[in-house]
Design brief:
single chain, alpha+beta, three-stranded antiparallel beta sheet, 4 helices
């Protein structure tokens, strides 16, 4: 039974180690544009029925004691990590190609292999071919290409792109669409501020910014991460204390085993 207690305490220490890894990733990405914090979730392990006493185990105390069984758990395991899609603060940049989303919705981008991904990072650039791309070079979809004579670009809250050329002409160039999901928590994080659809997230739904629950586009703003440093510090202290008390359990069991061994002397 002592070794079982050691293994149970070890599951608690391992779970808190994973919890600290999740918290440290949140803190490391506090300045990452559009980053959404993760939350570790845990489940208790299987339970085992054991006799309430040695008398009951050996059936010495009679039939009245034989039915006294107790359920004792085997510890804890990390079951999943969940993305928290709470809105981040919109910070002004005064850059015409910095686009923040106020509300639900994602930008759709096309990766080099032709597949699509989704992002809340609206720090777009102009490629050498005049395409609107992300900082990592992924093309914004639907594809938007600017002519060489574009002098100024204005993007409205509903995604309408109007430009002014060097010749003084102004015209509407295109429209930006946003994508949202029935369950954004089911998206798979790919790194590079990108997400991929999964069976859990559902199919992407396209729409006009500001309509039908899609967020509005804010030109000249970028969405900050939604990591609250105070909450993360509290979570880190709680995890540290939980790890510490589990290690105390290991120490206590070891001391009990030492006492048992010394009974032979």
């Amino acid at each position: 039974m002592a070794t079982k207690s050691l293994r149970t305490a070890a599951t608690g220490m391992y779970a808190q180690q994973l919890n600290i890894q999740v918290i440290s990733n949140n803190i490391a990405n506090i300045n990452t544009t559009g980053f959404k914090k993760n939350k570790a979730e845990f489940q208790d392990l299987m339970y085992q029925e054991i006799p309430s006493s040695n008398l009951a185990q050996n059936n010495i105390a009679g039939p009245q004691a034989s039915g006294e069984m107790l359920q004792v758990g085997s510890g804890v395991k990390a079951s999943s990590t969940q993305k928290i899609f709470k809105q981040g603060d919109l910070q002004p940049t005064n850059n015409s190609l910095d686009l923040g989303i106020n509300g639900e919705g994602f930008f759709q981008v096309r990766k080099a292999d032709g597949t699509f991904a989704y992002t809340r990072d609206g720090s777009f650039k102009i490629s050498g071919e005049g395409r609107v791309v992300t900082a990592s070079g992924y093309v914004l979809e639907p594809d938007i290409t600017l002519d060489d004579d574009v002098l100024q670009i204005n993007i409205s809250r509903d995604g309408e792109i109007s430009v002014q050329s060097t010749g003084g002409n102004s015209y509407v160039l295109d429209n930006i669409q946003l994508v949202r999901f029935m369950n954004p928590g089911g998206l798979e994080a790919l790194g590079d501020n990108l997400y991929a659809e999964t069976e859990g997230s559902g199919q992407p739904m396209f729409g006009t910014p500001g309509a039908d629950g899609f967020g509005e586009i804010q030109q000249g703003f970028l969405e900050a991460s939604n990591v609250d440093i105070v909450e993360e510090m509290i979570a880190m202290i709680t995890a540290q204390r939980a790890y510490e008390i589990n290690s105390k359990t290991v120490q206590t069991v070891e001391e009990m085993m030492t006492i048992t061994n010394n009974l032979k002397r």
